[in-house]
Amino acid sequence: DTGSAAAVPIDPRFDIAYVTPVTIGTPPQTLQLDFDTGSSDLWVFSSHTPTSQIRGQEIYTPDKSTTSKLLDGHTWSITYGDGSASRGNVYTDNFTVGGLAVASQAIQCAQQVSSSFTTEESIDGLLGLGFSTLNTVNPASQLTFFDNAKSKLGSPVFTADLKNKQAGTYDFGFIDKAKYTGEITYVPVNPDPGYWTFTSSGYAVGSGNFSGSPITGIADTGTSLVYLPTAIVTAYYRQVQGATNSRNYGGYVFPCSATLPPFTFGVGETKFTIPASYMSYAPVTDGSSTCFGGLQSSSGIGVNIWGDVALKAAFVVFNGANPPTLGWATK
Ligand SMILES: Cc1nn(C)c(C)c1CC(=O)Nc1ccccn1
């Protein structure tokens, strides 16, 4: 079997996040989920979510599904690195992504979501594509959609083809040669932290020379920006007129009119260049002439994160074989 579904930016102006349609239950209930390789819980806004915490999101109502089953006594609670959080109870039900079906997927129903999820009206939940060891369900942790689907897939892979300000694709079970150019460079993944952790071979700022220092980090479709060591980030913003590290806005900002250099990162012998246009994330507030950078420091995080700003410059293969690897190709 295979699956293929669109990854649609939630805002036409800035690539804050991408959502992908999924169906849950019988008859199918369609929700738009944020596919997140940086976590391993599949949770949804639901009939168990207080209405005060729902603002336009679609919800999953297990009681309306003839195939839903309560996973009795099981609960979950997750807090993301940015402080956002959710928790609730668990059902199993039929689940499909782009034609790929899993019969009894654990669906974590939110009974509580933090304000940043309530205010993000276009995201009806998250679909974790990290390693199942990170799943937060108690007393028995649950498998991700990918782990449940793997045995049905021709090849135990999924690919991310995220795009700048336009819809991209998540494919499951196959590698579409039409989506990339040249060869795919595969690098080792350390699954122990539970993320798709790999080591980049270095970086360059604009047309500067390439610094071949290894950078270990995670490929994270659920994070908007790129978070790297301070030395790299300061070297980048030294090339941006008027850039400052703003305590007020919590990161590097610059005049939206500034000229930004592109940013190149290495994977093995291959180099990926993030165009300058991807490196300006968004005005700090609507209509402001001050823009927030797409590259920020990872010093407060504890892990380097290659988020959407970087991933949309490549075609990425998440190879779930044993051992797992990451494949990177230009496009
Ligand atoms: C780890 C981390 N620290 N900081 C500042 C950020 C932004 C992160 C990444 C993060 O929180 N990603 C996320 C958030 C919500 C849902 C899915 N992924």
**Which descriptor suits the 3D outline?**
globular
The rounded distance between the terminal residues' Cα atoms is 25 Å
Strand content: 35-45%
Poorly predicted regions: none
Helicity level, as a percent range?
under 10%
Count every helix, treating DSSP H or I runs of 4 or more residues as helices. Answer: 4
Largest sheet: number of strands, sense, barrel closure: 6 strands, mixed, barrel
Q: Bound compounds, please?
A: the ligand Cc1nn(C)c(C)c1CC(=O)Nc1ccccn1
Output mean pLDDT.
Answer: 98
What is the alpha-carbon Rg in Å? Answer: 20 Å
Count of extended strands: 25
| Class per helix and strand makeup | mainly beta
Major sheet: order of its strands?
Answer: 2-3-8-4-7-6
The helix/strand order is: EEEEEEEHEHEEEEEEEHEEEEEEEEHEE
Which helices and strands, and how do they pair?
Layout: E1 3-9, E2 18-24, E3 29-36, E4 42-44, E5 69-79, E6 85-97, E7 100-113, H1 115-118, E8 125-128, H2 145-149, E9 157-163, E10 166-172, E11 181-188, E12 197-200, E13 202-205, E14 215-219, E15 226-228, H3 230-237, E16 244-246, E17 251-255, E18 263-267, E19 270-274, E20 280-283, E21 290-293, E22 295-297, E23 304-306, H4 308-311, E24 315-319, E25 325-330
The chain binds ligand 47U.
